Amino acid sequence: MSADARDAVVGLLRHMVTGESDEEEVALGNADLGDQCRAAARNGVWLVHRELGTRHRESAEAVLEQIENDKPRLAAYPAGIRGTWCADPAACRPKRQGP
Predict the structure, then answer these.
(1) What confidence score (pLDDT) does residue 6 get?
(2) 52, 77 Cβ separation under 8 angstroms
């Protein structure tokens, strides 16, 4: 899939899982469209986790906040990808041992 296509898919997924039924849909008896979209997206939750390591991280996090049922995984997975941030890289380098 091209980068542009992936951008569009991830962005569309983000909108779909954060949305709710509008007044017209509620009047037609479709009050649970948001829940239906989130349930369908859960079938591919592992694909969204994969996007955390790409330039789509922010959108992937927004999607996962809506669809991930395993909250400890939601907290741990991004931390593992990002690693530990250090304001002063020289101070954060491991110290040499021995002579």
Answers:
(1) 87
(2) yes
Torsional class of 6: left (φ above 0), alpha (ψ -120 to 50), beta (otherwise): alpha
Which tens digit of pLDDT belongs to each residue from 12-52? 999 999 999 999 999 999 999 999 999 999 999 999 988 88
Tokens at 15, concatenated: 């909108």
pTM of the predicted model as reported, rounded to 2 decimal places: 0.71
Question: Using an 8 Å Cβ cutoff, are 60 and 18 in contact?
Answer: no
Helix (H, G, I), strand (E, B) or coil at 3: helix
Separation of alpha carbons 11 and 2, rounded Å? 14
